[in-house]
Each structure stands twice: as C-alpha cells, then as structure tokens.
Amino acid sequence: MKVAVLGSIAWRTPPHDYGPWERIAGLIADGLHERGVDVTLFATLDSVTRAKLDGVAATGYAEDGERDGRVWEAMHVAHALRRSGEFDIVHNHLDWLPLAFESLSRAPIVTTVHGFSGPSILPVYERATSAFVSISFADRAPGVDYVANVYHGVDAAELPFGEGGGEALVSFGRIHPDKGTAAAIAIAAATGRRLELCGIVQDRGYFNECVEPHIEGDRVTYHGSVGPSRRAELLGGAAALLHPVEFAEPFGLSVVESMTCGTPVLAFSRGSMPEVVDEGVTGLLVEDVAGAVGAVEQTVALDRAACRARALERFSASRMVDDYVRVYAQLLAA
C-alpha cells in the first residue's frame, strides 16, 4: 500500500510546540512507516519524519508571519495532488481546501475532519466524495457522510507517568474565549491553588483584558506555548488539568495528553468531553465554574495510575494508526 499523508504547513511536523493537526499527521505517517506501508508525508521541508518527505514550503508560514498562508497552502495542495497518481490513498489533514480540488486527485481521498471552523465551510464537505473520518461523534455535522470515527492518539513515550505531588492546577490550550482560560483562572483562585497556564495566544484582546491582569506573583504563571518535554513536565507534575471549554470541543488533545501522564481532568461537559473523559477514572465533568470549584478535590483524588492505564488503552498512537489502516483497507475494497 502506498499512502500520501497531506499535512498542514502552518507549522513544522511535528511542531516545536503548538500544532495539533501537524502532530497527528506526523504520528500517522510514522506509524504507517513502522507497519511497512510506503508512506510520503507532504509537509514543511524542515519536518522530521520516518516517512518519505515532500513539499514546497521550507518552513511553516505561521512561524514568521511574512507569508500568505492561503497562497502557500494552495501551492502545497497542488503539488501533492500532482503526485496523487503515485499513491493508493491520499489522507487529507488540511481541512476543506483539498476537497475543493479533489477532482484533480488520481487516488481516493480520506479526510480527517479536525473540527469545523464554522458553518460557512460545510458546502464543500457536503459536495465532496472524500471518505470522511470524524475525531469524535459529537463533532459530526449533519449532511456529511462519515465512514468511521477515529479518536486521536498520542505518543506515550513523550508523555511519561507523572507522580503529581504538587498542588498546582494546569490549563493547557489556545488562549481564546472558546478554551475558557479566564474560567480556569477563576476556578484556581476559588480553590486557593496555583495555576500553570500554557498556550499560544490566539485572541490578543482577550489575553490583555481577561488573562494578563491575573498573571502576577506565584498564583498564575504563564509559560507561553511549550514543547514536548516541558509539556510532559508541566502536565505530569500538576494535580489536575482544567479544561473549562466554552464551545463544542471537537476532541481535546491536551486532555488526552494530561490523562496519559496520569493527571486527571476536570472539564466542562461540552462537545467531545463526555466521549473522551471516563468519569471517575480519568476525570470529572461539570457544567460551570461553580461546579468545577466544588469538584476540584474529588478530581485531584482520582488514582493517577488508573488514569494513565485507561488513557493508554483508549488513546495510543498505535491504536489510532491501526484504525486508519482499517479505514484505508475498507475504502480500497469498496
């Protein structure tokens, strides 16, 4: 089997810090290579992969802010589709753009839907013939036909078991109203616990008004966007992860990363969270800030070894890759 993994070029694969689409595409490409699949990863040319690497962008366009991402993504997609006849499957991780030009592909396309940015992009999904894979059942859109649901997986070697031991809570994700950063600060303050805050600033106004004023002393520490080793250190050392999302979370990669370190999760019950969090084992679900404040101590008391064991069982990169191999086989046999 020959597979083209069409990744994002906003960031390097795997990303130095932020870049969930790139991280998942990279894990899939490496996992396919380990299974003897002839796989080519289309990504930035500074990417690090066990697969063959091809692309047009030297580095991620989001890393310097000087290049127009729309232009570079279009050239990236055109280059990959130009080579599509060399493959049995093209696995798309680049949202809607490749779907608009799928008639140019000489191989069937599998598209992992990494969440919908808004209803305005749905027409291209509804008209496309790609085989769609959701990352949670909660994220499925009416009018789009899916062939499978494949939950994301993580590399457990990058996320060793953490004994915890600290009293601090951690919030990990984009600094944006959707991710509930201000709510995480309020929850930590109400429980008298320190908060370790990590993530790329995606809404500067929100950060300036609702987050930055609270970053003071040792009560709230902002670490910025952190890479794999620092991520594992912070997650593994925390008492619990706060994930008070204010939108329908498509998946929640940081939630699974935390659970893999053995750190239980306290999340708002939005979107995929009831699918991802096994209540009483890997975390607890609540509806609002008041509920979270009352549930912190119960969350912290959960068995960390059991939390990690369940995460490894459900969300390993190996399981994810095996699921996609079955999707490819299903599509080729049709």
Structural notes for this entry:
It is a single chain. With 334 residues, this protein is an alpha/beta fold. The protein has 2 domains: 2-153 and 316-333, Glycogen Phosphorylase B (Rossmann fold, 3-Layer(aba) Sandwich); 156-314, Rossmann fold. The protein is built from 12 helices and 13 strands. The chain has helices at 20-34, 69-82, 97-100, 122-127, 181-191, 204-211, 228-237, 253-260, 273-276, 289-300, 304-314, 317-333; strands spanning 2-6, 38-42, 52-54, 89-92, 109-113, 131-134, 146-149, 169-172, 195-198, 220-222, 240-243, 265-268, 283-286. The strands form 2 sheets. It has a 7-stranded parallel β-sheet. α1 (20-34) packs across α12 and α5 packs across α10.
